[in-house]
Structure formats: C-alpha cells, structure tokens
Amino acid sequence: MDTTPVRTPADGLPGPAGLRRLPAVDALRGFALLGILMVNSAQIMSPYESEGFRDPGAAPWDQVAAWLVSALATFKFYLLFSFLFGYSFTLQTVAAERDGTGVTARFLRRSLGLVLLGLVHAVVLYSGDILMTYGVLGLVLLCARRIRPATAVKAATWVYGVFAVFLTAMGALATAVDDEEPVPRQEIARVVAAYRGSAGTVVRENLDRLPLAFFAIVLMAPGVLAAFLLGLAAGKRRLLAPGGTDRARLLRTTALGLAVGVPGAVFFASAAQGPLDDRWQLLGIGVGMSTAPALSAAYACLLLLLLNSPWTDRVQRLFVPAGRLALTNYLGQSLIMMFVATAYGLSRYGRWGAAAVLLLAGALYALQLALSTAWIRRLRHGPAEWLLRTLTLAGRPGRAPGTGARERPNADRPA
C-alpha cells in the first residue's frame, strides 16, 4: 500500500494538467454513508426488518425509531450513492484517457472487482449487498458513455417513471385486498437461531439468501440505472465542480424536493411501520420509491449549500475523508454490525430494539468519520480502495499502468 503522506481533498489543490479532486463528490459520498448505515443496520440487527415485517413486540420508542429510519433513509441514500457512481464514472474515463489506457478494459476490471467483493460481502457478511448490483449494472454506463446529457436525463426519467407507475399501480390494487399476512414466527425463530448459532450457520444462512440478493438486483435495477444516468449527465456537465451550479438553483431544487419528497416519505413510513395497516404496505413502497429521488435531491442540495457557505471548511473536514474511504467504510459497517449481531461476535441479533440499533449506528458513523480523517492524513487509499484500484489498474495504485510513473495524487478521480 502506498504510504506517501498526502493532503486532504479539502485543500482543493489542482493536480497536473489542471485536474483536481472534487470535494463535493467526496463529501456527498461521506454523507450518504450515514443513510446507508441506518438502513443496513436495521436489516442486520432485526429479523423482522430483514423479513419485511413489523415487530409485534416493539416498544413505542422503537416504533418511532423504525418509522424515522423508513421516512428519512429507506430508498433515499442508495439512489444518492448510485448517482455518485455515475458521476464518478465520468471522472474515471477522464483519468483513463489522460493515462493513455483503455476505458473499456479498465472499467471491466473494476466491475469484476466490485462483483467479486460484493459476492464475498454477501456470503460472509451482509446479504443485502449493493456492490454486485453496481458491478453488473455499471456496464450500462460503459455502453452509454458517449450519450448526450439531455438524452441521459430523458432515459433516466422514462426508466424510473415507468417503474414507479407500475409499482404504485400494483400497490393500489393491493389495497383492495383486506388480508393481513401473519408474522411467520417459525421462520423468524429459524433465522434467529442461524445468526446466533455459529460462524458456519451464519454463512449458510447468507448462502440461502443469495437468490434474494440476486432478486434485489432486479428489483433495484430501475432506480440504480436511472441514478447512474443522471450522475453521468451531471458529470458531463461538471455540476459538482466548483461553480457548476448556483445557489438559486440549489435552493429551488431543495424546496421542490422537500415539497414532493416529505409527503411521500411520511406515507411510506406510515404504511411500512404504522399506523396504516398492512394492506397499504405495497402502495406505500410504490409512493415511497416514486418520491424518493426528490428527497435524495433535497439532501444533496442542502449539503452542497453548506459546501458553499461559511461552513465550507468544517463540512469538508467532516465528510470528505469518509467519502474518500467510502468502500472501506461501507464494508466496515457490515463487519462491525455483523460482529455485534451474529455468532461472529456478540450474538445480539433480534435482542435490541430499533432505537438502540439507531444509536449504535450513530456511534459507529461518528467513529468512522474520526478514523477516516486520521487515516487520510497518512495514507492515500483505504484498504478496500487499494484492493479495488489494484484490480482496476492491473497493478499497484501507486503507479500508472504501463508508464512507470507515480499516480498523480490530486487527480480528479474517485478513490
């Protein structure tokens, strides 16, 4: 691993050939880690959340915590991460062209690396992995890399729009069926026994859940693809570069996003966690997914407004290091939460309510922010980033492939 000390991206220093890291991209990615952790930790720690049922024995404060996670985080942050993945693809193509290497070969190796990391992640740690989805669906970006920004936006609108309308229509039909599905207590007990049993039973349970993980790729595909395309369009227009967008536009987008996203999030959370009964759940999912992009956009614009305010330096110092180590932090979240939840460590699976899990997630996120800041002061890449870049470049990240020259430390490219 390259141990050369480097300056933080908050410095915003231009690299060779006028390129620079984009603090906004890293900051947004670091912020999105919080929402991903909130959602994933609930799934990792609760058999009811992982099976898609309300906990019938939840205390009032746990019901409130589960409701807030559904309203504020579910569906919103994987879209933001996907948008940033599409945006970062434009940076990777620039980096590949600058280094004189083929974009196709480099990105195919990166996609393969994501699939392999995701498969290990899903089997050994958390079955709700997103990396396999990115590795597979990211190939669409490779095929669409020469698409015009306006065409990418139209394609994203059609893909997500048709999906949202279909899902909402199916949900509306489901409300006519007044048939409450009972909680499968035997299945809940079996899953609890597996995750509290031994390391072997944890892996076997994750292997049994792999078909569901592959089904999730299909279910999430429209949202991920749409966000990829929007990120691609934004990257081509350099919207996250300094001066890429103005304050008035950010304020308008925030206001519109909140106006559309908040009511949708409230309805979704009420259908998923109560007080609405179970027959509203599918419609809640349709409405929640339809309006999630609006709230995701509002979150992103609010952070961008902070990045263009007197709080700029503080916000960058807080979120940028975590964003540069996003892959390491994502995998680290699963590792720590699975240690707490399963027979890998403390076996607390199903024993803690949603409020305690949310507090644990907040503490873990704060720890990751601090550790990321300390790490990035000394090292250029996190462990997972170093491994993925080694696969992507087919060589050590410290050197540009085929040149013998050291990789440019401040180049505008994702970690």
Automatic annotation (TrEMBL):
- Keywords of this entry: Membrane, Transmembrane, Transmembrane helix
Q: Which residues form the Heparan-alpha-glucosaminide N-acetyltransferase catalytic domain?
A: 21-169
Asked if the record carries the keyword Membrane, the reply is yes
Pfam families documented for this protein: DUF418, HGSNAT_cat
- Asked if the Swiss-Prot or TrEMBL record annotates the protein with the keyword Nucleotide-binding, the reply is no
Which residues are in coiled coils?
none
Its protein name is: DUF418 domain-containing protein
